[in-house]
Amino acid sequence: MKKIVVDIFGGDNAPIEIMKGCLEALNKATGFGIVMSGDKEVIEQFLADKKYDKSRIEILDAKEVITNDEVPTVAIRAKKNSSLVMGLDRTKNDSDVVGFVSAGSTGAVLAGATLRIGRIRGVQRPALAPLLPTLSDRKVLLIDCGANVDCKPQMLLQFAQMGHAFMNSVMKVENPRIGLLSNGTEDKKGNELTHETFALLNESGLNFCGNMEARDILSGDYDVVVADGFYGNIALKSCEGTALMMLKLLKRELTATLPRKLAALMLKPAFKNVKEVMDYNKSGGAPFLGVSKVVIKSHGSSKSDAICGSILQAWNFAENNLIENITPYFSVEEQ
Prior knowledge:
335 residues; 12 strands; five-stranded mixed beta sheet; alpha/beta
């Protein structure tokens, strides 16, 4: 049976919400098992009164925990018995394991995935790539959103190639539309990095649509938005902040008077739908593309539904041969 490894002690709401998410995922989908990486005694105590298919759960006993306060690379090397490191090692070494999920320290997950699992051969730097909602029915992949703050043009070209492979194989988007995040849509806009990247993307054979502005990320006009991790992270956090501000502003205005409260009751289902669409974390986490196995980084504040979504994401990506579809773009470079 194929398996997904889950870091039970990673995240603000670990371990209870993470374990709940594991059981929810098993109830929602079949075909895979879960390896729960963490303190065996704590996990067994939680599972004692739960109903689940025991053949689909395995416990990997890991006594240590890596926190957000630790230096990622130091913690990865020092805490070899942590739920994160042991989970990553199991993911690398077990051919039955097709994916890894953690809501732990972003820096530690990214460093650990690169150091313990390793990159797809030819990939210079793996990239964090969340799927974001748009005004259309399609989603947009933002790559990179924080893994690499100092990038070279060739790295951004690789991000575009990985984004293309992801959208094509997993999201079933033919010839994905790729935009380069810049400070204007004109060809000459941007800094030295975007100028050089623009030229590479123009000659890449990908469906490159040119420069695009941050305000158009969620427009539905693009399938992949390419950025270095510094500006990509700022763009992502700006989208998150704007969404939260709008929801709070609506709530404040709709509860200001009695007539508005009555109107809000009638519109409650619509507002709930809008909130669900805007909260991209509900559908899971962000894939770390470029690693030789599927790695999903869940939001640190993830609760059981988001963890469940991340596990199902990992299984879906593995079932759609994500790694196998990314690899051919880089095999030529190694010859």
